[in-house]
């Protein structure tokens, strides 16, 4: 731990979704490892997922604390225990979920008033708009955390603040995203914001935007070398500081913390790790499509068939809620696991993703391009097979495949909206998956170059977090900004 700025107390308020909470908890650990006092506010079900890790850090002397605030499910009409987006069965409950999140403001402020040392800054998810008011009440700065990189954040900002969509008549017509340091095309259908169709979210999004405007700066889980000029461009358009302090997953050093990062690992995971020990280096494809989107059984069957047809060793993660009876019956009828025995393993439930990706036997990552997953793949220097599903994932795919040139597309063209997975049916076929895997593992020049670029980027990611690296220095800058107090010059 370097010179502790003990008077700095950073309050972290994450959105209750795995892709948002996991990086924010890592970020809190990153700041606490530099001596800042870190308080993370969450709810009991979520705290249970992180308690072991945070308690261990705290026992080791890190000034970090996880504070549980009851989630008012009953008050808003949510079933008890529905405390994370990965538990909600459908988007129909989203409004109630965000209502319940809003009701955390009062108890958090009450707790903060009694907490010592007094808070000096709030880093909260962009969706926790009310924390802007909390920051004003306490007279401290608030930094917005977008659970994505600067490349997708700038793209979304530029599309929103230009007229580039005015002349676009079809959802499937590619258009150039304006103002990007490295130009690229995308379709309207692939833009973020197309994941859930909800009119009633307009007011909610208005509040998020207002709170972003009032914020003092932005912190991102990314690193300067990855962003190709996007940080400078984004700072300019918003007139605020933007700091990349990641990849924060690299803050986890303890093996058991890495293994249970984000949740208790499925009981299949240990036997899978032992199996990976027996596999040739860089030979196995790890396939996991994030924590949220539950694809239709028919689409998952295509994925299973594609993995089988590729003849490549694989790990296939089937998340809770996806492994329903239709898929399980198919796996049984096909004797899937028997047929791939020795070559493929299925993990049902939560996979220790970062532990798996760091295993020497893993040679490629079939990912939905969630920002965290993409970044974790980069940290492990893995070439990727990209299958974006929704949100900003199509933009992340452009970064991985076209800009970083370390990925191969399966060819998904339109998003799978939450709650509409069964309606869209099959978008990616078995052959698309097998073809992409073959291309990724190919030993031709293109395949080798892809692996080389992935290795170089992995090295840069690790360097960024080391002393003297860009993210390490950015953490110092954030701390200096907080210590300097309210009068800060603009960008
Ligand atoms: N994750 C994991 N095990 C799983 C599924 C997901 O550890 O079985 C983690 C993954 O490592 C990442 C996060 O959950 O840190 C998912 O975030 P991401 O942005 O990739 O996608 P989302 O789930 O938000 O779509």
- Estimate the global geometry from the Cα principal axes: globular
Alpha carbon gap, first and last residue: 29 Å
**Class per helix and strand makeup:** alpha/beta
| Helical residue percent band | 40-55%
Strand ordering within the main sheet: 3-2-1-4-5-8-9
Number of domains: 2
Q: CATH fold name of the largest domain, please?
A: Rossmann fold
Unique bound compounds: uridine-5'-diphosphate
CATH class call of the largest domain = Alpha Beta
Tell me, rounded to a whole number, the average pLDDT: 94
Give the name of the CATH architecture of the largest domain: 3-Layer(aba) Sandwich
Poorly predicted sequence stretches spanning 5 or more consecutive residues: none
CATH superfamily of the largest domain: Glycogen Phosphorylase B
What does the radius of gyration come to?
22 Å
Largest sheet: 7 strands, parallel
Counting DSSP H or I runs of 4 or more residues, the number of helices is: 21
Report on the structure:
With 491 residues, this protein is an alpha/beta fold. The chain has two domains: 264 residues, 3-Layer(aba) Sandwich (Rossmann fold), CATH 3.40.50; 201 residues, 3-Layer(aba) Sandwich (Rossmann fold), CATH 3.40.50.2000. Helix content is 43%, strand content 13%. The strands form three sheets. It has a seven-stranded parallel beta sheet, sandwiched between helices. Strands 12-11-10-13-14-15 form a six-stranded parallel beta sheet, sandwiched between helices. Strand 14, helix 17 and strand 15 form a beta-alpha-beta unit. Helix 7 packs across helix 9 and helix 12 runs parallel beside helix 13. The two termini are 29 Å apart. Uridine-5'-diphosphate binds next to helix 1, helix 15 and helix 16.
